[in-house]
Amino acid sequence: MKVLKFLTVSMLILSLALGSVILCSCTSQQTVAPTSTESTETTTVPTEKAKYTETFTWAHDFEFTQIDPATCNSSEMQILMACYDRLVEYGYVNNELKILPVLAESWEVANDATSITFHIRKGVSFDDGTPCDAQAVAFSLKRAKEIKKGQALPYDWMKDVEVLDDYTVKVNCNYPYAPGLAALTHMTASIVNPTAVKKHATTEDPWAYEWFQQHTDGTGCFNITQLEPGGTTILTRKDHNWRDDLTEKDFQANPYLDIRNANIKTAIHKTIKEASTMLMQLEKGELDHAKNVPAPMLKEAMARNSKITTVKGGVLRNRFVFCNTQKSPLDDVNLRKALAYAVDYQGICEKALGGSETPHGVPWLSAIWPQVTEGRYYYDPEKAKEYLAKSKYKGEKLIFRGFSSPDFEASAAALVADWAAIGVNVEWAGVPWSILYDEWILKGKADLVMFTGWPDYPDPDAVAIRYWSGYWPPNGWNVARYKNERVDELFMKGRQTANKEDRVPIYEELQKIVIDDCPIIWVSELTTNDQAIGTWIHANVPLLVPGESDFVHFELIHKESAELP
Amino acid sequence: MLVYIIKRFLFLILTLLGIITLVFFVSRVIPGDPAIVIAGPKATLEQIEIIRHEYGFDRPVLVQYAIYMKNLLLHGDLGLSVYARRPVSIEIIERFPATLELVVVSMVFAIIFGIILGIITAVWRNQVLDYILRSVTIGGISLPAFWLGILVQLIFFYKLGIFPSTGRITAVPPPHITGLYLIDSLIVGNFQKFTDALVHLILPAFTLSLGFLAQIARITRSSMLEVLHEQYAITARSLGFSENVVIFKYVLRNALIPIITAIGMYTGLALGGSVVIESVFAWRGIGEFMYQGVINSDFNAIVGVTLVFAAGYLIINFIIDLLYPVVNPRIKLE
């Protein structure tokens, strides 16, 4: 029995040790944190040029699967932004959304909106010494237009790119296209090394798409040195980058170029699916930033740990519900208005979305000019009932679909309850993207579809297109299948009018019609986004640059190692 | 014996072909268009059509099946993953070592501790220790793996800071030789990497193994109880053999057949169980690849990984069948 006794005693000791450890850990004191949830984005940091020494580690719940900038459209943008530059980008300067110079020092848009001339920054080169000149710019834009792979944005409006001299290019449009300059702020217009493209191109793959799926070759501050989609991807700062030689004048023109306080040498990206795991790692200091943590979880984490805070930044995004205007009973504007007035916008934002979004009720994003607020929808159940009584609704069950994610589920549950309160029967289900698009949008089976959306570029054209009948699925994202001839006319007129002052009344009229027709219920707007970050991370410019969504730009931050937990 | 092996092998091939066929057609009838996933939310119809053509989704399902089987049987080609945008076979080859390492360590842990617990509870049947350990094993079977995963992260990473919570290693892995980090780091003599990989392995392996450990313990217990009072055990005791000899030489050996059968089944199931564990622990194996495949309507990934899981399950059980005569010479394979 000696062996048995030994085994039994060993197991008992092991169990007791494990049990004690678990018990101790469960009863240990939690850190009590201050209740402040203020952002640290304006924290003062040293102004002298820092050495690049620190490692910035962040996690995202989404896995990127390709890194060609011409075809990117998702979380990989955050990585690619550090590796590539565009001619222009956009961001907030003194609370105003502006198009800012990057590789282009200046530009002129033709009066008839048929061309844009860019004057390219001198002295910028790729890692192999290839100059980033007019030839490189023309080549990259042609590649973006013709690659037609993956998620590449259509550049049908772009006719060609003329090289006027070594550092001047002229982008010609196929037709007058006022949003052209704004469209070139998109990541797909990144400038790539033409030498690398030509070197790795094949007959089947003339744009070296396969090579750019695995490698980076741009003029950004970083290069990918380890690529492991779904695992750990490592970016390493280049020894020298053109930004190192910038002057005060350049920083005034574009504060996002300012890297004087960025001390990041290495950036590590991890894919972690569980928000709770991300938060745990952030609290332990293993992560500097956890992306997409649901607001309620983040609030709890901040309450128990003083080392967790958030950064706020501008985001161009709103949450809305498309009403299928071509399908009974939502082809009746009275029913659509009834649904719009039945929504407790404030309640959804505060309770279902944890205060992370603000009530909306109008078609235009507040950061995009010219927003019309007259006729804004608000919570008025009595008015909703009046419109419902005037409608042809007879108690049919409306099919409501959207993504299967926590914020969608929470806001959809609140919407269904609000509509039930006025007597409208709605059935909700959250589904994966491929099913949502194929089954419910493309085939038009759903009566109501919830989306969160953002314009591809900071121009009213990118918002107005949602209401253009030429943008019905499968050609675009007018999921409401809304059609109004005057709106179509105004949309095309706005697109082809070069002067901003002339475009304002066009988009104002368009918005008034759309508000009255109510093809969409505009639930909430995300103007600032809280992202979980450690208090040891600072920035002297807003961390989150809109347009490229709500990404933390690690090339703009300062990390205090001494403050790590 | 040889005839038996050949017959079993042919049966294994036929079963795999049946599984591939079934999964192929089932994955194609579920809603969702993989071309839309690849194209992304901003793509035009033209781009989606190009992708459909590129991946062959625009052809009739039977034609797709014929092409798939031809490529698989003639070239071992499992098609392109729409999610990873690479051949499924390459993705599986790259990721399989991660899953293998996780499953092997988990099952070694489950087998050793499961059998020990089973023996203890059988020998001390209906005593306090038996009741306690049986309660623990029932708990082990009942706990959902994803919940247990988060719980162990909370305790051993967040509260105690003993083990890392995600990933296979801190930053840079050892040079790729086998893809098994424990082995590769030993081959290159980098003990720091070995320790790093080992501590990363402990929590996911423990989480994956707990349910199987509990099952093996319960099967060992019941199997031991059946033979503990057999005539030969009583005879051995009456002849003056020590209890250790009786239990480990006679009783355990005769009780091993159902335990080995269970181990074979559970090792196969552990491959499938890795889908959840790998997602919780950000473990870049084929389980995680399968999870992404399901989310993104990646048909080829689903079929490819199912093929690996099914082949693993069948091969392990085939080996287990061959082991029966070794454990009990009275059994002959026919």
How would you describe what is shown here?
The complex is a heterodimer of chains A (565) and B (334). In chain A, strand 2 (88-93) and strand 3 form a beta hairpin. By secondary structure, chain A is of the alpha+beta class. Chain A has 17 helices and 21 strands. The longest helix of chain A is centred in the first third of the chain and has 26 residues, at 2-27. Chain A has helices spanning 2-27, 76-83, 134-146, 180-183, 194-200, 209-212, 248-253, 275-283, 295-304, 333-342, 345-352, 381-390, 406-421, 433-442, 460-464, 485-495, 500-517; strands spanning 54-60, 88-93, 96-101, 104-109, 115-120, 158-165, 168-173, 222-226, 232-237, 264-271, 289-290, 308-311, 314-323, 358-359, 397-403, 425-431, 448-453, 520-528, 531-534, 537-539, 557-559. The radius of gyration of chain A is 26 Å and the shape is globular. Chain A has a domain at 314-527: Dipeptide-binding Protein, Domain 3 (Dipeptide-binding Protein, domain 3, Roll), CATH 3.10.105. The two termini of chain A are 50 Å apart. Chain B has helices spanning 2-29, 34-39, 45-55, 61-75, 88-123, 128-142, 145-159, 181-187, 191-228, 231-238, 243-280, 286-295, 299-327; strands at residues 80-81, 86-87. The mean pLDDT of chain B is 87. Chain B folds into two domains: 2-87, no CATH class; 94-327, Orthogonal Bundle (MetI-like fold). Chain B is globular, with a radius of gyration of 24 Å. The relative contact order of chain B is 0.14. Chain B has a two-stranded antiparallel ribbon with strand order 1-2. Chain B has 334 residues and is mainly alpha-helical.
